[in-house]
Design brief:
Length: about 140
């Protein structure tokens, strides 16, 4: 009779594990209306640090930038993306040569999964109405 009791315990254990696994499978992340995983649009908490790192590769000479300003991250859509993404607008005056400045530029930094993904040139419609704040960290970049 002990054999039957052990068998029932194993069956009970198997059923318990199956119920737990089924419950876990039901608790996946919610998707937005487009079916896209919300993790793709995680808020970029370190956006300034990510942008500073990206500028080293983006600009030929990232030093001595003038008049730098930045907006807060905002969900926006751009024609090349099929979904909305967090974007940050930037204005700055980079060097063209060692002594000549290029003039004011405006770019948008795109974030995917809370991390910097790319810069978009000439984002006039993307940055229209953006509220800018000084971004002195960009003006202090070193090589």
């Amino acid at each position: 009779m002990n054999g039957g009791g052990a068998c029932r315990r194993h069956v009970g254990l198997i059923i318990g594990v199956a119920l737990l696994l089924g419950a876990c499978a039901g608790h996946h992340r919610q998707s937005d209306a487009s079916g896209e995983d919300e993790g793709v649009n995680a808020y970029p908490t370190n956006y300034k640090t990510d942008i500073l790192a990206g500028m080293h590769a983006y600009l030929n000479d990232p030093t001595a930038i003038r008049d730098a300003s930045i907006s807060e991250p905002a969900m926006k859509s751009e024609s090349t993306f099929s979904h909305q993404r967090y974007m940050v607008c930037l204005r700055f005056n980079p060097k063209k040569t060692a002594t000549v400045y290029e003039g004011m530029r405006e770019v948008a930094a795109v974030f995917v999964g809370g991390r910097f993904d790319q810069f978009i040139e000439t984002p006039k419609e993307l940055c229209a109405g953006a509220t800018y704040a000084p971004f002195p960290e960009l003006e202090k970049l070193a090589r």
